[in-house]
Design a protein that fits this description.
2 domains; Alpha-Beta Plaits; binds iron/sulfur cluster; eight-stranded mixed sheet; Rossmann fold; globular; alpha/beta
């Protein structure tokens, strides 16, 4: 386990520590999450009835193994560990991006995060429809922040590690954009980097668990390539956490504008940054996000918001969004129908017994059980076993609907992880 402490002599307990542990298979994730929580035991609330809110990154409906969203293995291991420790009030809450919110798509359903309700008796809350309270940020941004977040007794942020075409890095600080309700997330883009920093000043997580298993590089956050990072990290400080993660993926911290704002505000210092660079080695250099197209930048122009609203009924159609995707104006194409895919078997004659499916199964099924135990709470129907199988040995039934597009885009990449 690797550890960095930003303020070793802090007397108020705010040491800005980040602890990192390698993990890749589901077993390693469970061991890693338990080990990190043991290190951070002092941080957990003593009252087992505390309302714990877990805020993952469910940015859109892309399977987590693309690197886009929080991995169900991490969420399952975290819920299991919290339950083992006796916590009785656990909620998973997030507000997916504005395109998802506008179409009324449930990422909890599509990403099978809902399955954790049956497995651990937790609740899920869509922050896009939550009651909310306005906060004042910069450049006239005044988004409403979901009350489930503001009223949490203990807040755990579970971000991914991704490139971001606008913000450069998406990790703990960028994950906080998702606490703004629905279309209010647009306010953040009035001055994205400054407002990412500002919203992290308004409300801070009590604990951060970074899902650095499968990251996304290149054209993130919604259209990059997955890469094997194979790390979990835990921290109590989003600013130091993101500076450390930037270092571990070889992203120069000065290239991440919201970290510069944290430096200006004194929440990071040159000394802390210098020590991160001298004490920590790069684990896996990330491929940076490409320059955004002129059209993409134009589409974010605030003065054209009226035009966007006018043409939205046309632009929202998948065939039109597909053209915008090809022109690199948008990263995502959405379909209204949920997939109905289910794992219903494993074809023994095709199976090479590589056990990749076992390593990716969030519910810890054995090879003999995969495709046999197919109902909750044993199987989350997350399809991870199918995504990673190189031999097409996992038998599915149902319709992919819009998932066909992400299968064409990501299946081969995910098989090679
Ligand atoms: S990943 Fe596919 S080939 Fe490998 S053990 Fe699982 S089902 Fe068999
Ligand atoms: S068996 Fe497959 S579909 Fe079921 S939980 Fe495991 S990985 Fe997901």
């Amino acid at each position: 386990m690797l550890s960095f402490t930003a303020r070793p002599s802090a007397t108020d307990g705010n040491t800005g520590r980040v602890t990192v542990i390698p993990a890749w298979s589901n077993d390693e994730v469970r061991v890693g999450v338990a080990a990190l929580l043991k290190v951070w035991d002092h941080r957990l609330p003593p009252d087992r009835t505390t309302a714990i809110v877990i805020k993952p990154n469910l940015n859109n409906d892309l399977v987590a193994l693309s690197g886009n969203c929080t991995d169900l293995r991490v969420l399952d291991a975290l819920c299991a560990e919290l339950r083992t420790r006796g916590y009785t009030d656990i909620t998973i809450a997030d507000g997916s991006n504005v395109g998802i919110a506008r179409r009324g798509i449930s990422t909890f359903k599509r990403l099978r995060v809902d399955s954790l309700k049956a497995r651990y008796g937790i609740r899920t809350v869509d922050l896009n429809t939550d009651s909310a309270t306005p906060v004042v940020l910069h450049d006239d941004a005044h988004p409403q922040v979901a009350n489930t977040i503001l009223n949490a007794g203990f807040l755990i942020s579970v971000p991914k590690v991704k490139t971001h075409a606008e913000a450069q890095l998406s990790c703990a600080m960028k994950n906080w954009v998702g606490i703004c309700r629905g279309q209010d997330k647009r306010h953040m883009h009035y001055n994205l980097s400054r407002n990412i920093f500002a919203i992290n000043e308004v409300v801070q997580p009590d604990l951060i668990l970074v899902d650095g298993l499968v990251g996304m590089e290149g054209n993130g956050p919604g259209d990059g390539e997955p890469f094997r990072f194979g790390q979990l990290a835990m921290s109590d400080d989003a600013f130091v956490n993101d500076a450390v993660i930037a270092r571990l993926i070889g992203l120069e911290w000065g290239a991440v504008p919201y970290l510069l704002h944290a430096l200006e505000a004194g929440l990071l210092t040159r000394d802390i940054i210098g020590r991160i660079e001298s004490e920590l080695a790069v684990i896996r250099p990330i491929k940076r996000a490409p320059e955004r197209s002129r059209l993409a930048k134009l589409a974010e122009n605030r003065s054209l918001e009226w035009l966007k609203r006018t043409v939205r009924p046309i632009v929202q159609k998948p065939e039109v969004t597909e053209v915008a995707y090809k022109l690199r104006i948008v990263q995502d194409v959405y379909f209204l129908e949920d997939d109905t895919l289910r794992v219903v078997g494993r074809a023994a004659e095709k199976c090479g017994t590589c056990t990749r499916c076992v390593g990716f199964c969030p519910t810890s099924l054995t090879l003999a059980e995969i495709g046999v135990k197919v109902d909750l709470p044993d199987c989350a129907q997350c399809l991870y076993c199918w995504w990673v199988c190189p031999n097409d040995a996992i038998v599915l039934e149902g319709e992919p609907q819009g998932m066909a597009r992400q299968i064409a885009r990501y299946k081969k990449d995910i098989e090679k992880l």
